[in-house]
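Structure ticket #2291
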Amino acid sequence: MDNNFNRRDFLKAIGLSTAALTMPEWSLGDPFPERTESVFARGQTRVYRGEYLTAISLPIGGIGAGCIQINGKAERHAWQIFNNFTHAILPDSFLAVRVRAKSEGPVIRALQTSPVGPFEAMKDLSFRGEYPFGWYEFEDDKLPVKLSMETFNPLIPLNEKDSAIPCAIFNLKVMNPSSRLVEVSLLATQKNAVGFTGTIRSPGPKSGTVMADFESSDYGDWLATGEAFGAGPARGAYSVQQLKGFRGKGLVNTYWKKGDGPTGTLTSQEFTIDKKYIHFLVAGGDHPSRTCINLLVDGQVVRTRSGDNSDAMDWATWDLSELRDKKAQIQIVDDVDDWWGHIDVDHIVISDEPLAEAQLIGLGQNRNRVMDENNATILHMTSDMGKDASGYGDMALAVLEEGAEGTASWESLDDLRDQWAQDGRLTGPKQAGPSGKDQTLNGALAVPLQLGPGQERTVRFALVWYFPNARHGDKRQQWQHEGNMYTNFWSDALDAARYLKENMDRLTERTRSYHRTFYSGNLPHWMLDRMSSQVAVLRSKTCFWAKSGYFGAWEGCSKGTGCCHGNCAHVWHYAQAHARLFPSIARRMREQSLRYQRNDGAIPFRHPGGNVAFDGQCGEILGGYREYLCSSDNQWFDTHWPRYKKAMDYIIATWDKDEDGILAGPQHNTLDGELGGSTTWLGSLYLAALETCEKMAEIHGDNSSAKRYRSIRQSGASRQNETLWNGEYYIQIPDAEPERDYNNGCHIDQVLGEWWANQVGLEPHYPADRVRSAMKSLLKYNFRTNFRGVEQLPRKFVGDDDAGMQMITWPGKDRPKDHMTYADEAMTGFEYAAAATMVQYGMLKEGFLVTRAIYDRYDGRLRTGLTNTNWASWGYSGNPFGDDECGKFYARAMSVWSILLASQGFIYDGPAGVVGFKPIWQPDDHSSFFTAAEGWGLFTQKRTKLRQTEQIEVKHGKLAIRKLVFELEQDVKLSQVTANMDNKGLPVKFSLEGLSLEVTLSKAIVLEADSVLNVDVKIG
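Resolution: structure written out below.
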């Protein structure tokens, strides 16, 4: 590829007019150290600075173990390790450095760009992130040393246990560039938060006048409209509500009698604002302006507050300073009749004093102990609380170096700083506690060093947590699971910390090996960043891993809970990264879904039961075939094939009764509506599912079923192509009874089944030229270089100046009245799938263009003004680690991994021992990371006029091979094929069909870690 391929040439190459599009520069821009002239340039690691740090939030933690999110200031700004969703802030928990050069006073800094009490902030920093690693380079001209921090959690593909350690690792590197001896001390201080479950509450107003406490049998002079508020205040919670925090016996609770359905308002009489603040308790739905409490002045909303999708009431406050002496009313609003469509309000107080300082709820009886172990010092944090308490557990802060010192307790930040400033050492008790009621302890560890001129040292800190009494899921949906999987591996945080200590070198090297191998692929660096970054979803609160082994998956993260429960099949079937990196987790997810399969074969698209989504049902079947391919043998498949056959037969009986391959009837789908009639969107998924079942039936010797599925599939492919092609792209023919249809719309997912088919080695069902035309139509009609003037409804995910691809457009201006709900939105998971389809069909430039647009939307700059609900991006976006859709860290975004599979043309059948690559990205000089059932590594292909060479290096585990598949250039004459493993020749047979070369080994081999297989193809 020509790395000088410029923007104008790029647009011409994909058939787009430079005059028609106002294309943003696809360069990294001034804030970054490199520039690119095209989407194909290799590029370098992105360095984030200035405003490009404002949206950074890197999650560090184990799979399903909770995480700590670290922002662009190097603050640990969101603690989610206590089985909580809330973005809890944990004070007194940070890293710091003390540096003293000879004859000068000490310089002390917190290792972040915000101060912590008397610990001054670093002047500046830059950040680099290649998941799972984050690297911070600190800058401060007052420091005579260079300081950096590497943070990560072990991430080793195929090794679920080590990738699920509940820990965060912080490697602090200090380098002395001067010609003088320098004293350095590195400090980690940590609050013992055992007992804390993520709830931070103010004790309430110190004084004031109670305006409403809702203790009466009615609302008094407040005026109610609608049915949501009933005749008077509620008396506590409804049976399934986990309501807490209200005062007295009464409160406003619009859920308590009739659930989320009723709506209405409750408005106070007019009053004069004569004090500085109004304080109140609030909880309930997070629907700004729709489930909320408002302050009205002259009938206009001047202050507002909604809930956070929880029923844990907490204090909120309005500053009324500039509104004094104005006439006002308070109005409580419930205008949502759907999920979390209620509001909780209690104890409204007007006061001249602010709220008291917030407290971490659940603390008390905490103990700290500093332990010196072999080559490590550990601060073990525990509590005397009972083992059944929700916050029970322990924490361990460890320094994995000799010479560390620690204190089990320090009283104030000022005292800690002053004492440490003297000589960089810590004094204090080795044991402390128990703390008093609602109180806890702060402990610290420090490592004093001396660095001569040019010397450097790296000190390894680690924080380990262990909170076993988790309650995951959603009780109201009967989707609840207990405990954490990590409790099956370790007995407490101290046990996990010791495991980490004893295995740190191995865990670090294995993680570095994954990172090194992945980034050794020669795809553009920005593309590798996009692919790797979405793996962060597995470490976010989108996923939990219960003690029973159940792997739980929300769609994304709301502010106070998960967003959309139940391992949603019509979302998660798009996700591909987890299944390729951790195939045993994917198999576990398939087994869980089959556990809830009905007798008629239907698989509810949400656990534990309920409705069936057409795309979810197909996705479960396709996922089952993928999980079979990513296994080492047939055992898993043999066990589950009967259930997949039943699932396929349900689809046919429900939506294709005449077995002609054309769908009919309402088809629930991921756009949260019913689609009617025949489409290639759902129709192509149907064809792909039929083909997987055809293949599975053949493997199982069920020839009659295979024949039946093949007949339906072939009929459907023919008829869909005949009836749904409009000359440019594929459309819909709706049923006579309208549903949420799109008719002649150009749909982003119009060939979704072809996307799936390529990933699992199925035949295409539509002509290649038509698929390419359909994909070009998406660029022509759906791709926008900016969204200025575009009304994104119902949710706005893309900033006005950013590029992206809309879900559905109507080139003929014949948009149906009741079309699919999210037609005007742009969502990354769908865009990635479309981009991968483009790549699969040789449209490399087009697919990279679409993906690059997403990369530029998530460039670390904070975007605001987006839809501010839990069901969107919370009002902001731009974090490179975890894309937004229905909440943060949305699972569908892991579809980006399919672009890797498409770019390398990956072919894999684990049980059959078939491994192949047909690269579309740089086939003359290609390298890329791959995963298999039992190993992973790097594939390399090179071409010259006289030969083509293939190399498979296994970096971890093992790879069983019987047959290899590659692709040759057009119009070449094959002369000879030879193969060797670790330079030892292997006898092979080969055959060429078209451009596809099959190389069969005379005897199956197993490539072990660090082994290399070479295939040499001579031309001419």
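Closing remark: Confidence is low (pLDDT under 50) at residues 1-36.
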